[in-house]
């Protein structure tokens, strides 16, 4: 498991990150592995009109709890459309528009609703609390199932072959 230090401003939708987060019920922060859906979700509170910012994602692993089985992880990535390479890291195929866009985040939630409700993994994290601690980007996550990686490699191989064939024709 290779990780790279990054900042919250550089985190994009689809990336898998590790960070320590302390919620209101915990006395100490806990390390979590999350597939980011929206790194800056803005919500206007009805009572005060103040804008609250959240990090929205699928919690894949939390220290002290069992990690998700590989079959369920594969189901998640297949629902999202597979994996892709983004900034030198393996990430879930989530539209870049989903990052910082409330409508796209809602569409992704609706697409994953049955899976998320069954597994209970959809999480929102207070962005202000997240910004207090470091975030690490997973470069090659051991959480991603081998079948998903092999499918991605086959897709990339096919794309490269198609490009080479087009170059040979021209």
What does this structure look like?
This protein has one domain (2-169). Helix content is 34%, strand content 34%. The chain has 4 helices and 8 strands. The strands form 2 sheets. Strands 1-8-2-3-4-7 form a 6-stranded antiparallel β-sheet. A two-stranded antiparallel ribbon has the order 5-6. The radius of gyration is 17 Å and the shape is globular. The protein starts with a strand and ends with a helix.
The helix count comes to 4
Low-pLDDT windows of residues: none
Which outline best applies?
Answer: globular
- The strands making up the biggest β-sheet line up spatially as 1-8-2-3-4-7
- Return Rg in Å: 17 Å
Query: How many domain modules?
Result: 1
Report the strand count. 8
Beta-strand share of residues: 25-35%
Topology as H/E string? EEEEHEEHEHEH
Helix content: 25-40%
Head-to-tail CA distance between termini: 42 Å
Please outline the major beta sheet.
6 strands, antiparallel
Helix/strand/pairing category: alpha+beta
Indicate the mean pLDDT: 82
Short structural description:
By secondary structure, the chain is α+β, with helices and mostly antiparallel strands. Helices cover about 35% and strands about 35% of the residues.
């Amino acid at each position: 498991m290779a990780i790279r230090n990054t900042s919250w401003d550089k985190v994009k939708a689809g990336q898998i990150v590790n960070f320590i987060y302390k919620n209101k019920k915990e006395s100490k922060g806990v390390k979590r592995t999350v597939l980011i859906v929206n790194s800056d979700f803005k919500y206007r509170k009805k009572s005060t009109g103040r804008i609250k910012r959240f990090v929205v994602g699928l919690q894949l692993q939390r220290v002290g709890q069992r990690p998700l089985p590989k079959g369920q992880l594969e189901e998640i990535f297949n629902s999202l459309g597979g994996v892709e390479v983004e900034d030198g890291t393996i990430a879930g195929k989530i539209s870049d528009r989903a990052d910082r866009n409330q409508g796209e985040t809602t569409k992704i939630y609706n697409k994953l609703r049955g899976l998320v409700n069954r597994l209970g993994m959809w999480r929102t994290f207070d962005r202000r609390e997240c910004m207090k601690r470091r975030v690490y980007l997973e470069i090659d996550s051991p959480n991603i199932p081998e079948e998903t990686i092999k499918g991605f490699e086959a897709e990339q191989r096919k794309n490269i072959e198609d490009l080479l064939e087009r170059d040979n024709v021209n």
